[in-house]
Amino acid sequence: MQRLGVGVGWRPEIAAPVEQLPGVDWVEVVAENICPGRLPESLERLLARGTPVVPHGVSLGLGGADRPDPWRLADLAERAEALGAPLVTEHIAFVRGGGALTGTPALEAGHLLPVPYTRDALDVLCENVRIAQQCLPVPLALENVAALLRWPDEEFTEGEFLAELVERTGVGLLVDVANLHANHVNHGTDPLRTLAALPPEAIAYVHVAGGTERDGMWHDTHAHPVGEPVLALLAAVHAHAAPPGVLLERDDDFPPPDVLAAELAAIRTACARAREEGIRHV
Questions:
Q1: DSSP state of 176
Q2: Per-residue confidence at 177, pLDDT binned at 50, 70, 90?
Q3: 54: number of CA atoms within 13 Å, CB side?
Q4: Which NCBIfam families match (predicted)?
Q5: The predicted structure's pLDDT at residue 104
Q6: What DSSP character marks residue 276?
Q7: DSSP 48-108
Q8: pLDDT tens digits along 1-54
Q9: Is 282 part of any domain?
């Protein structure tokens, strides 16, 4: 995987700070929010100065029962080529129900829904990933999601499921440590055990984001400061795999530039501490 460094999710609301902040090595953009022939001027300037831009898809639904939509795959491939992206990323999730297999119109969930960690679900996901890989011009990496529910009768832990997915398809992993923390709070899973199961060489980069706890549940809001438990997991994954990149996500309640810069500095500090102290959490 290409070494990316520390980056931030590009959003129109923080386009100017992202361009001007020191230490922004790369950016990620929601793939469905851009048009290849009419990129925002801010992204054009970043590309002109050599800043890598990675498209991050949210609508493929590779965890669904239907095969990936050829149009959506072609759309994602076009964006990767327009950006000169080193890779593209998506989610281990399904986002719609119905469709070709049921003969009914597809219903959009409007959310990234978790797949059950079962052998049948893994078989479907692996085949969908292989189809996507054949259609994309660059490597694909998939993100673990935060789950507000767990499916009954699961046959794998999250770590086992992700490791088997990598083994069978060679797909990369986008490890979201905020989502690992959410699943720990909401379902009692062990994020360090999950990290320990992941092949280090498969980790393409890491997402870091803030959230909040309400009524005993952790909500991955991308609208709050990054907390210490998430930074501790970032240090753990860095010690486990020295990931090629780390990216800060913010999608609402955007902070002023100095606060954004401080969060990026905290991310760099957590990564450096893991290197310097030789921390081995996993």
A1: E
A2: very high
A3: 32
A4: PRK05409.1
A5: 65
A6: H
A7: HTT--EEEE-SS--TTSSSPPPHHHHHHHHHHHHHHT-S-EEEESEEEEEEETTTTEEEEE
A8: 678 999 999 999 999 999 999 889 999 999 999 999 899 999 999 999 999 999
A9: no
Domain assignment present for residue 126? The answer is yes
Q: Is residue 212 within 8 Å of 221, Cβ to Cβ?
A: yes
| Residue range 95-116, pLDDT digits in tens | 877 666 566 667 776 778 999 9
DSSP per residue, 18-46: HHHSTT--EEEEEGGG--TTS--HHHHHH
Residue 47 backbone zone (phi > 0: left; psi -120 to 50: alpha; other: beta)? alpha
Residue 112 near residue 61, CB atoms below 8 Å: no
Q: What is the rounded end-to-end Cα distance, in angstroms, of the chain? A: 21
199 in any annotated domain: yes
Q: Which helix (H) or strand (E) holds 203?
A: strand 203-208
Q: What pairs with residue 218 in β-bridges?
A: 213
CA distance 132 to 156: 24
Half-sphere exposure of 218 (CA within 13 A, CB side): 25
- Structural domain count of the chain: 1
Which tens digits make up the pLDDT trace of 120-152?
Answer: 999 999 999 999 999 999 999 999 999 888 899
Q: pTM score, two decimals?
A: 0.93
User: How far apart are alpha carbons 256 and 261 in whole angstroms?
Assistant: 9
Locate 149 and state its tokens: 């529910």
Query: Is beta strand 53-56 parallel, antiparallel or unpaired with respect to 26-30?
Result: parallel
280: pLDDT confidence band, cut at 50, 70 and 90?
very low
Domain membership of residue 84 (yes or no) is yes
Q: Which domain holds residue 84?
A: 5-277
Q: Please give the helix or strand (H or E) that residue 204 lies within, else none.
A: strand 203-208
Report the C-alpha gap between 72 and 59 in whole angstroms: 8
- Please report, for the domain that includes residue 229, its CATH number: 3.20.20.150
